[in-house]
């Protein structure tokens, strides 16, 4: 490997290993009853977050994510302690402990659990940034999102109005436990080009390749303020959330043997990878301990507007129904 690739390999492995450790810890905390609610992890998909987000400018750009958002948040520079505190329901959480696992808002990063719900918002913000001459955006999507009309409206307007936005599809083959073949007809990667959105399709096995593709596509978006799409074929090794996993176990094990994190680790000297793993383990353990000890969230009272007096039908000249 060239020296630049060696440094990039260390960066990407460190980022992917941090995401994996945080999400495995989250799963354990939920199973122990120390966290409530639900969570959706991206175990197996870490190369997408590490590869794409690192191509962005954190000072000017923005990222929109989905219900499976932890990896994107950490790759954007979010702190594990703030994420753990958010899920513990602590004041020090990303959103003061009130947003939970799916709804994070921090420093140009926004996530939401509604499928395709963030796509039109991302287009609107991208157009706003274009008018101001500042930055571009990334909007992460899943393959299940292609069942939502809001996504097609967003692709249409992004192309029609020239929104400086990179759509990134993380196609893991499933919506919850329903395989793609049972919910979508045709080729999903062919749908953005139907709106005039240039699309690059690739597998998500190598985060270095993903980084290079993301860098090229973001440069193109910056140059002409037109949307692009990076369509990544990946696989989720963990269950959809905390529920049972109805996928074929042999299929999961086959993908586990091709785990991009393990492949990335093999590119580093064992001693260096071991050191990174130890440092991450200590960092995550410290983050959990600190977050769990933080003060609980304070519910915020939102004042309701005064009721508006409406005219009666008689005074308005109308007839009773």
Structure, briefly:
The chain has a single domain (3-179, 189-289), classed as Thiamin diphosphate (ThDP)-binding fold, Pyr/PP domains (Rossmann fold), CATH 3.40.50. It contains eleven helices and nine strands.
Structure description:
Helix content is 43%, strand content 12%. It is an alpha/beta fold and 321 residues long. The chain has one domain (3-179, 189-289): Thiamin diphosphate (ThDP)-binding fold, Pyr/PP domains (Rossmann fold). The strands form 2 sheets. Strands 2-3-1-4-5-9-8 form a 7-stranded mixed sheet. Strands 6-7 form a two-stranded antiparallel sheet. α6 links the parallel β4 (137-142) and β5. α1 crosses α2 (46-53) and α2 packs across α8 (207-224). The relative contact order is 0.16. The model has no long low-confidence stretch (mean pLDDT 94).
Defining key terms:
321 residues; Rossmann fold
Topology:
Elements lengths: L2 H29 L14 H8 L8 E4 L4 H6 L4 H9 L16 E2 L2 E3 L7 H14 L4 E6 L6 H13 L3 E7 L2 E2 L2 E2 L11 H4 L3 E6 L3 H18 L3 E6 L15 H8 L3 H6 L4 H24 L28
Parallel strand pairs: 1-3, 1-4, 4-5, 5-9, 8-9
Antiparallel strand pairs: 2-3, 6-7
């Amino acid at each position: 490997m060239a020296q630049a690739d060696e440094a990039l390999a260390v960066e990407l492995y460190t980022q992917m290993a941090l995401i994996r450790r945080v999400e495995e810890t989250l799963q354990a905390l939920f199973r122990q009853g120390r966290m409530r609610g639900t969570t959706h992890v991206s175990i197996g998909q870490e190369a997408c977050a590490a590869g794409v987000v690192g191509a962005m400018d954190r000072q000017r750009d923005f990222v929109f994510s989905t219900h499976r958002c932890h990896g994107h948040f950490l790759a954007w520079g979010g702190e594990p302690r703030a994420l753990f505190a958010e899920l513990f329901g602590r004041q020090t959480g990303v959103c003061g402990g009130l947003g939970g696992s799916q709804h994070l808002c921090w420093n140009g990063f926004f996530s939401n659990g509604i499928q395709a719900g963030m796509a039109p918002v991302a287009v609107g913000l991208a157009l706003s940034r274009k008018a101001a001459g500042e930055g571009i955006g990334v909007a992460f999507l899943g393959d299940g999102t292609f069942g939502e009309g809001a996504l097609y409206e967003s692709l249409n307007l992004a192309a029609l109005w020239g929104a400086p936005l990179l759509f990134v599809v993380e196609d893991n083959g499933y919506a919850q436990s329903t395989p793609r073949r049972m919910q979508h007809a045709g080729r999903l990667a062919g749908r953005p080009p139907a709106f005039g959105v240039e699309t690059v399709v690739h597998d998500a096995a190598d985060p270095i390749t993903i980084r290079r593709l993301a860098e090229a596509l973001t440069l193109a978006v910056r140059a002409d303020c037109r949307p692009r799409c990076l369509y990544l074929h990946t696989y989720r090794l963990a269950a959809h959330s905390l529920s049972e996993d109805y996928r074929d176990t042999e299929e999961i094990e086959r993908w586990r043997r091709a785990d991009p994190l393990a492949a990335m680790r093999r590119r580093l000297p064992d001693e260096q990878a071991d050191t990174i793993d130890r440092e991450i383990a200590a960092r995550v353990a410290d983050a959990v301990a600190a977050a769990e000890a933080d003060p609980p969230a304070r519910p915020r009272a939102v004042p309701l507007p005064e009721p508006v007096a409406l005219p009666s039908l008689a005074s308005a000249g109308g007839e009773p129904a």
